[in-house]
Amino acid sequence: MSTLYLSHPCGLEHLVPEGHPERPDRLRAIERAMEAEVFQPLLREQAPMGEFDAIAEAHPQEYIRALEQAAPSEGMVRIDADTAMSPGTWEAVMRAVGAATYAVDEVMTGKVDNAFCAMRPPGHHAEEARAMGFCLFNSAAIAALHARDKHGAERVAVIDFDVHHGNGTQDIFWNRPEMFYASTHQMPLFPGTGAANETGCGNICNAPLQPGDDGVAFKDAMEVRILPALKKHKPDLIIISAGFDAHERDPLANINLTEEDFAWVTRKLMDYADEQCEGRVVSVLEGGYDLMGLSLSVAAHVRALMGS
Questions:
Q1: Between 20 and 30 A from 103 (CA), which of 35, 46, 53, 237?
Q2: Is 146 designated active site?
Q3: Phi, psi of 243 (to 5 degrees)
Q4: Distance between CA atoms of 20 and 89, rounded to whole angstroms?
Q5: 90-115 burial by CB neighbour count: b if 16+ within 10 A, else e?
Q6: Is 0.85 surpassed by the pTM of this model?
Q7: Residue 47, Cβ neighbours under 10 Å: how many?
Q8: Greatest distance between any 2 Cα atoms in the chain
Q9: Are residues 1 and 267 in contact, defined by beta-carbon separation less than 8 angstroms?
């Protein structure tokens, strides 16, 4: 089993206001976890810059240019109440996109079995023409559309187990039947979307969880709602929006998953990928704001990707 691990030091240069949960220390915690001996077999590469044409499949050119122009040369600008840009943000977000699309290239051409993109900022709240919730460009949605456009994938699935609903991915996929989006998430919680009756053109599957739910409810949501819907879609590639803020230690929500639950769902998705799409899985980091919970969960997730 060959697993590609993509990262870049510029991910540390996306600075945020003091006290902001989506901070550079998130990547530092992940990098420390990846120093363990079990991760020595990882194929490690630095994330390339993303391409405007790929981004433009998910976001209008006007939106892309407006964000580029909003990037400050010094100081910090707020895009909304939760989302800011610093001088290092533009390169960080472009390399986050580049990591996701390059991972798709490597997996779709069979050079690696699967990939994990350890980049920030996250992306799944970024709607077609709106940045929000710490997110600027929607890397997972861009990667899915890139798989269609560059590699001829007829159907692509994004499975999102972040504790917050990926309203951006749902927005971008809403009228695209070849794209499938499924999410477990706490509800009610930011951003307020993700009800079970939000189904797009039959390609959206939401399985909301209640505050206080644990791994039992999470596994039930996956096995009863999401995995059967995924099997009906029959994707050529699975992309994981890998948020780890449903961990019991996380300060931003009230779902009580453990790192073993993240390993379980990773193995489930890999088993399906083995059956349906030649094992092709690309995982993109989303949330996770308790540093210990994040590092333990990412380690469990990547070990599962490696087949450990």
A1: 35
A2: no
A3: -100, 140
A4: 15
A5: bbbbbbbbbbbbbbbbbbbeeebbbb
A6: yes
A7: 25
A8: 50
A9: no
Confidence of residue 123 (pLDDT cuts 50, 70, 90): very high
Residue 169: both structure tokens together = 């991915």
Residue-wise pLDDT for 253-307, tens only, equals 999 999 999 999 999 999 999 999 999 999 999 999 999 999 999 999 999 999 9
